[in-house]
Write a structure and sequence with these properties.
Length: about 375
C-alpha cells in the first residue's frame, strides 16, 4: 500500500480567496511528490464553500505541469453531472497531459443542493452511474461505439484521444451496496472514509464490501480497497484539537448538504450541530490525530485490520492552517511511516496489488445497439 494526499479545498473563512485555497492544494501536491506520497486526489463539489473545486480534472491537468511522477486522481468525478460526450475525451486528454499518471475516481454524488442546480434527479444517480460505467468501457475498447440506455444515448462515436498506458486505475467512492456491487462487476477498487469511526467501524464497512463482491460472484480476497482518513501529526495539543474541531465542522456541512438542510449566511454554510454530533474529545481519541507515536499506533491498527491498497489522507479540512497541514505531511512520512513499518513490515507488501492495466469490460449486448 501507499499513502496519498486528498485535497478537499474547503473554504471556511469568508476572507480567504479562492486563489489561496487552490494554491494551497497545489503546494500540498508538490510537497507530497517530494516526500514520496504515491497519489494526490482532488475533490469535486459545486455551489458551496464545502468544496470550491468544481473540476478535479482541471486540478489534475494543472498539477501535471508542476509535478513529474506522483499519480493524480479525481476524488471523485460525480458522473451523473456530466455529459458522456465531453467527459470521455477530457479523461483521455488529461491522461495524456500527465503522461499516463491519471487515476480515475468516480461516484454517484449525494448532495441534493448540487443536483438541483444541474437539473438532475438525485434519486436516479446510481442508475445513471451504472450506465456511464458501461459507456466508459465501450468508448475505450472499440474504435467506434454507440450506446442506448435509459438515461444516455450516444450515436456511433470515436473518442480520438486515448489513454497513454491503457485503462487507468479505477476507484469508486460511496458507501452503498449498489456502489460496491458495481465495483465488483467492473473491477473497480472501492474507497471509503469511515468518517469518525475507529477500526471496528472500518472493518464493518469492509465486510459490507465483501458481501457485495460475493453477491456478484467475485472473490473478496481479490478486492483492492482504499481508505480516506483525516490525519494530523503534531506535537501541539492545541493544533490537534483545532484539527479535530475542523473534522467535526466538515462533517456538519456534509450532513446538512446531504439532508438538504443547509443554511447560508452570505456565501458560507452555517456550522450547525448534527442530531448525533461527534464530540471533539472522541474524535481526538479515535482518529489518527496527535504526536507521531500515537498516529503511528492508530494507523498501524487500521492498516493491519483493513489491509488497504491505498490510504488517502485529509491533512487540511475547514480552517486548518496550511502550515499545520504541511508539517503534518512531513511528520507522517518522516516519523510515522517508519514506525508503522517497524510494526507491520514494508507497506509495499500490504494489499493484493492493483493491476497496472484494467482488463476491458464491454457493456452487455442489451445495453449497446
Amino acid at each position: 500500500m501507499d499513502f496519498g494526499v486528498f485535497s478537499l479545498m474547503g473554504h471556511r473563512e469568508a476572507d480567504k480567496s479562492s486563489s489561496q485555497v487552490l494554491q494551497e492544494a497545489i503546494e500540498q501536491t508538490r510537497l507530497a511528490e517530494d516526500l514520496g506520497f504515491g497519489m494526490a486526489w482532488f475533490a469535486e463539489h459545486h455551489f458551496s464553500n464545502y468544496c470550491i473545486c468544481p473540476s478535479p480534472l482541471m486540478m489534475v491537468a494543472h498539477c501535471a505541469a508542476v509535478t513529474k511522477k506522483i499519480r493524480l486522481a479525481t476524488g471523485v468525478i460525480i458522473l451523473p453531472l456530466y455529459s458522456p460526450a465531453r467527459l470521455l475525451s477530457e479523461l483521455a486528454i488529461v491522461d495524456a497531459l500527465s503522461e499516463g499518471r491519471l487515476v480515475i475516481g468516480i461516484g454517484s454524488g449525494y448532495q441534493p443542493y448540487e443536483f438541483d442546480r444541474f437539473g438532475v434527479d438525485l434519486a436516479t444517480s446510481k442508475e445513471m452511474m451504472r450506465e456511464f460505467a458501461d459507456i466508459l468501457d465501450l468508448a475505450f475498447t472499440q474504435d467506434f461505439f454507440e450506446y442506448k440506455g435509459k438515461y444516455y444515448t450516444v450515436p456511433s462515436t470515436h473518442i480520438s484521444a486515448r489513454f497513454v498506458n491503457g485503462f487507468p486505475q479505477m476507484w469508486i467512492g460511496g458507501d452503498s451496496e449498489e456502489t460496491y456491487r458495481l465495483a465488483a462487476r467492473k473491477g473497480y477498487a472501492p474507497i471509503f472514509s469511515g468518517r469518525t469511526e475507529g477500526v471496528d467501524g472500518l472493518v464493518r464497512t469492509r465486510k459490507r464490501c465483501e458481501e457485495a463482491f460475493r453477491a456478484e460472484g467475485v472473490d473478496p480476497s481479490r478486492m483492492p480497497i482504499g481508505m480516506l482518513r483525516p490525519v494530523c501529526v503534531t506535537h501541539d495539543k492545541q493544533a490537534a484539537r483545532q484539527f479535530a474541531e475542523n473534522v467535526r465542522y466538515q462533517l456538519r456541512l456534509a450532513g446538512a448538504l446531504r439532508r438538504r438542510e443547509e443554511i447560508m449566511e452570505g456565501t458560507i454554510i452555517v456550522d450547525r450541530p448534527l442530531a448525533q454530533d461527534p464530540d471533539v474529545d472522541i474524535i481526538l481519541n479515535t482518529l489518527p490525530i496527535g504526536p507521531p507515536d500515537v498516529v503511528a499506533e492508530r494507523l498501524a491498527g487500521e492498516i493491519r485490520a483493513l489491509q488497504p491498497e491505498h490510504m488517502s489522507i485529509y491533512f487540511q479540512l475547514g480552517g486548518v492552517p496550511q502550515s499545520v497541514a504541511l508539517k503534518s505531511m512531513e511528520l507522517l512520512m518522516g516519523e510515522v511511516k517508519p514506525r508503522i513499518e517497524r510494526a507491520l513490515g514494508p507497506l509495499s507488501k500490504i494489499g493484493i496489488g492493483f493491476p497496472a492495466k484494467r482488463a476491458p469490460r464491454v457493456a452487455p449486448a442489451s445495453a449497446a445497439e
